[in-house]
Amino acid sequence: MADEINASGGQAEAWALDVTDRTAASELAARLERCDVLVNNAGGAFGTEQVEQAVPGDWQHMFDVNVLGSLHMTQTLLPLLRTNGDGVVVVVTSTASFTNYEGGGGYSAAKHAQRALTETLRLELCGQDLRVVEIAPGMVHTEEFALNRYRGDEQQAASVYEGVQEPLRAEDVADAIVWAVTRPRHVNVDRLVVRPVAQAAQHKVHRTTGTAT
Description:
This protein is of the alpha/beta class. It contains 7 helices and 6 strands, in the order H-H-E-H-E-H-E-H-H-H-E-E-E. The protein has helices spanning 2-7, 22-31, 56-83, 105-124, 145-149, 154-159, 170-181, and strands at 37-40, 87-92, 130-137, 191-194, 199-201, 204-205.
């Protein structure tokens, strides 16, 4: 991504960072001179077991990345976001942050918690020159999300999107983020839900062929 931006005349630098590592987050913040926008995008779902058979380690991993990762990055970068007079914190949650479904208990719980973090932060920062935005995507076809969820089973991962015409792509979510953060400074997009046309709800997806497992 940094190479693409630089090739098009922009200026970008990429740093590898584990958002679950508080020390790493603090070190990144110390290297920055300013921060205008923070996008908490790190996340993921691991496993599809029902609650009765769920793997506690998977739930821990989902909370560490989705919830505590957002907490670490937000806490360490808020001082910089506050100083520029128009800082924006974006948290990428999911439609799972307000809709539960079978086999998604751990992921939905983590996303509900992430949504709670976002809403609470907005309340606590009220009156300051900071905006807090939640982007909640529905079905997004990426190379890693479903594959990680199904523990590397490519056939099962592919079945999630089988017969779905034009699921969202990462670029669609990025476009929504750009739109939200570039509104006038007096406009806050509290929550933006973005789904493909084929998905009317978490459990209602139009498929031309096949069914998801």
